[in-house]
Amino acid sequence: MPQPQFPLYIPSKSRAAIATTPRFLDTIKVPYRLVVEQDQYADYALHFDESKLIVLDPKYLDDYNTFDDLGNTKSKGPGAARNFIWDHSIEEGHAWHWVMDDNISLFARLHKNERIPVGDGTIFRAMEDFCLRYKNIGMAGPAYWMFAPSRSKLPPFLTGTRIYSCNLIRNDLPYRWRGRYNEDTDLSLVMLKNGWQTVEFMAFLQYKLPTQTLGGGNTEAFYNSEGTLPKSQMLVKMHPDVTRLVWRFQRWHHHVDYSSFKNMQLIRKDDYAIPETNPYAMVKVERKPRKSS
Amino acid sequence: MRTVTQKYALKSVDSLTQHPQNPRQGDVESIRSSIEANGFYGAIVSQKSSGYILAGNHRLQAAIASGAERVPVIEIDCDDTTALKILLADNRTNDKASYDNDALVAILESLSSADDLEGTGYNQEDLDTLLRILESAGTHPIDAFEEWEGMPDFEQDDKTSTFKVSIHFKSSEDTEAFFTLINRPKKPTMWWPVDDQHVGSDVFQKYVAESE
Fold first, then answer.
1. How many domains are contained in chain B?
2. ipTM for this model
3. Is residue A253 within 8 Å of residue A185, measured between CB atoms?
4. Do B168 and B131 belong to one domain?
5. Which domain holds residue B167?
6. Do A122 and B141 touch (CB under 8 A)?
7. B8-33 residue pLDDT tens
8. What's the rounded Cα separation, in Å, for the pair B69 and B37?
9. Between chains, do A114 and B158 touch, taking CB under 8 Å as contact?
10. Reported pTM
11. Are the beta carbons of A263 and B140 separated by less than 8 Å?
C-alpha cells in the first residue's frame, strides 16, 4: 500500500495520554515521530515506543521569534518545535516534511458526498505526489472537516489560501515559523507573497477536536484567559496589507484577504507526467464503529 | 504649484537631529549598501526652526555608518504642522507606489547577468522571487479538476437543500400523528425523499488502497 515518502512529525505538549493524531496514525500504520520537550519525555515514553520520540532542542525555544515583547511570560506556541522539525528533516536529507497538530482525530477522504475515514497512508502519498508535479508549491495539507461540508459542491483542492494544522512543507524554502499565534496563517501568507503556491486539499480532510476541548497543548495557557484580541492583532501587525481586525459575534476576529492570490497558477515541472495506472485507487471496506465515550 | 522656501548646504552630521516622532523603521543596512555602491545622492531634508530631519532619518544613519562627516542637506522653512505632514508624506507616498514587475525584472536581470545587483536593494533571491511571481501570475483561477487528473477519484455534487421548513406542533399527540402520517421515525431534522437521508453521515466504512 502507498505510504508517505516524507517524514511525519507531531510536536506534542502535555498530551502524552490523550494526543489523538499519533494514535490514529498507529491505527492506519503510518509511521511518525513525536517531538516533545525534555521534561516531558518520560511521560511520553510511558505511552509511546521510544523510537517514535524526539526531544526538542531547547535552543529553538530560546531563539524563537514570538513577534511580540512578552518573552517567556507565556507560552510561545508550537512554532519553535515546528522550526526544530523543519531543520531536523533537512538534516535527515528530506526534501519535504509533514508537521501536524497532536489533536487530529482522523483523516478522511471526501468523495461522492461522503466523508469517510481512511484506513491507510494512501492519501498522504497522493498529496505528496501531487505537490511534486509542480515547481511552485511551498506548502499543502488536507482541509478541515468542517470546511468541506459533505453536501456542498466543491473542487478537489483550493489554492492561494492558508494551510492549517497538518502541513506538508517544502524544505528548501528560507522561511520559518514565527509568532505566538496564527503561525499557520502567517507562514501561508509569507509563502504566497513570495510566489510560493499553497494547496488545501478538499478531497482529503482532517477532523480536529475543537480548540481547548482536549486539554494540554501549547495554546491552552492563553486562549482562554486573554480572549482573541492579541492573536488577531498580531496577524494584523505581521500582514497589514492583507489583514484587518473585525468585531463580530461579540469578539475580535482577523479577516485575511486572499483575493490577490486567487489567480496564482500552479507551474508544472518539465517532467510532469500522469501515471497510466492510477496508483491511488481506493476501495471502501467495513470498519468497526468507534467506541462511544 | 507652490515651492517651499529651501536652502541647500553641506552640513556636519553632528548638526542634524533625528526627528523624535519619526514612525518609520527603515532598513539602514540596505541604504548603507546603496551609499557604498552608488555614493550619497540627493539630500537630507530638515526643518529650519527645529533642525529635525523630515526626510532621510535613516539615510543619515547609513551615511554615518559609512563614515560620512558631512552630508548634503536641504533646509526648509515651515511650521511644525507642515513639518509633521512632510515627515509622513515622504514615506506614505512611497508606500502607495507599485511596480511594473516586467520592467523591474528586465533591469534586475540585466544587472544580474553582470553579477552586479549590489546597491540596488535587491539580491538574487529577490530576483528569483520576482521571476516566480511573474511565472505564476494568471488571469483566471486554476481549473482544479483539470489538475486533478491521475489523483484519487473526486466527485462532489451540490446536494445542499433547496428548501427548508420548520414545523411547530401544539401537542405531543400532534407530533406523533405527523410522523405516523409520513411514516418516518421521529427526528428533529430529516430529508425528503427518504432515499437521500444518509449522505455523508454514520457510514461505518473506511477507504484503503485497492491493492491492500
1. 3
2. 0.89
3. no
4. no
5. 142-212
6. no
7. 999 999 999 999 999 999 999 999 99
8. 18
9. no
10. 0.85
11. yes
